């Protein structure tokens, strides 16, 4: 081995070691299977959130009322009114509750036009946003306006920067992979034949999310979804109840219960094919097991 080879070999080994060390955090970020590698999701089952602390938690995750940059999307409320006329949202009305909470930097983002949503000018606020909130309504309206656009990409970019995305009711369902109740004919249809309304925005991958399950007796409604698409994890949310998703784990927050449709479990013939989590419980979606109970204890496996 000549002098040049002896000098080169340690250098190559050093470079390889450094490359592996630097790439380790990136690999760790990419290792999530369900939730985002960075950032947080706040997914709420609709209804009143008064006294739950959910909105306070969302604002905190978004950088705080004074420092965060919030974008509110009311689009699920409808692109057209009952007469078929284009709906116009009053920005002051949409943002009133946020300003009452002391949020200093908050803007509304809405269009019915996917071509407009694909422009840099329309999506400018998202480029710097630390938090995005989707209001309730019908989830397919959100798909019609933003799927496949620059705006859609920038929603995901908020998470990539470590921000937070939240939403309630339709704003919860849109966060999943499968779009539960995506039919334009009515919300009573759980699985639509409309191909353009079957996919959500996949902030929470491999999931199907339903809402209002306690108030509207929807506990069993996503059973057929999981039967037909067994790779999905079904999540049914009660009103005033949220899951806070970090990586592949979520914690239940709020007033009531969350139904988890996990088809990797064995259920007895008399049991429904799901189990229920309470506020404070934490669940590992990748491992498919409850990792913490509301009283802080670890459940027996």
UniProtKB/TrEMBL annotation:
GO process annotations (BP): proteolysis
Coiled coil segments of this chain: none
SUPFAM superfamilies registered for this protein in UniProt: Class I glutamine amidotransferase-like
Gene3D superfamilies, per database record: 3.40.50.880
Family annotation (Pfam families): Peptidase_S51
GO MF annotation: an example: serine-type peptidase activity
Keywords assigned: Hydrolase, Protease, Serine protease
Family, as annotated: Belongs to the peptidase S51 family.
The name this protein goes by in its record: Cyanophycinase
Species, as recorded: marine metagenome
């Amino acid at each position: 081995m000549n002098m040049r080879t002896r000098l080169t070999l340690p250098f190559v080994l050093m470079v390889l070691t450094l490359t592996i060390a630097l790439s380790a955090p990136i690999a760790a970020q990419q290792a999530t299977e369900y939730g985002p590698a960075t950032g947080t999701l706040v997914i709420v089952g609709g209804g009143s959130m008064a006294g739950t602390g959910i909105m306070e938690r969302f604002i905190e995750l978004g950088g705080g009322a004074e420092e965060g940059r919030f974008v509110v999307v009311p689009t699920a409320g409808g692109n057209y009114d009952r007469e078929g006329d284009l709906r116009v949202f009053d920005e002051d009305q949409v943002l009133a509750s946020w300003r009452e909470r002391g949020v200093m930097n908050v803007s509304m983002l809405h269009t019915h036009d996917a071509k407009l949503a694909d422009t840099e000018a329309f999506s400018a606020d998202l480029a710097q946003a630390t938090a995005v909130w989707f209001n309730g309504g019908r989830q397919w309206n959100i798909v019609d306006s933003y799927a496949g656009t620059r705006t859609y990409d920038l929603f995901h970019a908020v998470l990539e920067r470590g921000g937070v995305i939240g939403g309630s009711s339709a704003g919860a369902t849109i966060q999943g992979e499968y779009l539960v109740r995506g039919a334009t004919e009515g919300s009573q249809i759980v699985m639509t034949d409309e191909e353009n309304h079957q996919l959500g925005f996949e902030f929470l991958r491999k999931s199907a999310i339903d809402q209002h399950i306690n108030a509207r007796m929807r506990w069993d409604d996503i059973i057929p979804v999981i039967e037909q698409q067994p790779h999905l994890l079904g999540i049914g949310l009660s009103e005033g109840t949220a899951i806070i998703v970090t990586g592949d784990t979520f914690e239940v927050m709020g007033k009531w219960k969350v139904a988890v449709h996990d088809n990797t479990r064995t259920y007895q013939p008399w049991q429904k094919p799901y189990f229920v989590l309470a506020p404070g419980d934490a669940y590992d979606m990748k491992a498919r097991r409850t990792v913490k109970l509301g009283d802080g204890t670890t459940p027996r496996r």
